[in-house]
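Consider the tokenized backbone below.
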């Protein structure tokens, strides 16, 4: 084998062994295109709170309307609140897009989300985790409802 051929073979072997895609990280589920996950920001905020650099009233500041949505139409989660550690978090989803109110639409079911995904236009979904007990909230992730349609 000539030197350039060996280098090319080594490069292709290396690309098979080391993949720098998000799927190569252990514990990462398959995500949709255009999805943004805010776990790192969440972890930083929790870390600052536990170190005493942030007071509870600074991190537990959910808007009253978000708290109402958390009580009335949120999806339950298996995760404990990282602040009060006494209750489970709930997930509140909002969709923004054409022909929706400027403040978005709070989604109450998967059926409603699927119906919006079928409509024409670009719709963005924001999922917020909320503790109904202590008012802690954090944007968990955002994604496009139908990324193939918007491309």
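A designed sequence for it:
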């Amino acid at each position: 084998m000539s030197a350039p051929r060996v280098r090319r073979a080594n490069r292709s072997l290396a690309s098979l062994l080391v993949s720098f895609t998000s799927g190569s990280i252990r514990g990462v589920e398959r995500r949709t295109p255009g999805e943004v996950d805010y776990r790192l920001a969440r972890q930083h905020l929790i870390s600052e709170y536990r170190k005493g650099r942030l007071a509870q009233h600074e991190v537990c500041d959910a808007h009253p309307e978000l708290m109402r949505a958390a009580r009335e139409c949120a999806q339950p989660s298996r995760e404990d609140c990282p602040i009060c550690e006494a209750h489970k978090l709930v997930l509140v989803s909002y969709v923004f897009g054409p022909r929706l109110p400027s403040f978005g639409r709070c989604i109450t079911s998967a059926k409603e989300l699927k119906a919006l995904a079928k409509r024409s236009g670009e719709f963005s979904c924001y999922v917020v985790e909320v503790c109904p007990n202590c008012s802690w909230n954090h944007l968990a992730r955002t994604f496009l409802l139908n990324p193939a349609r918007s491309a």
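The beta strands are 36-37, 75-80, 88-96, 105-107, 124-130, 137-144.
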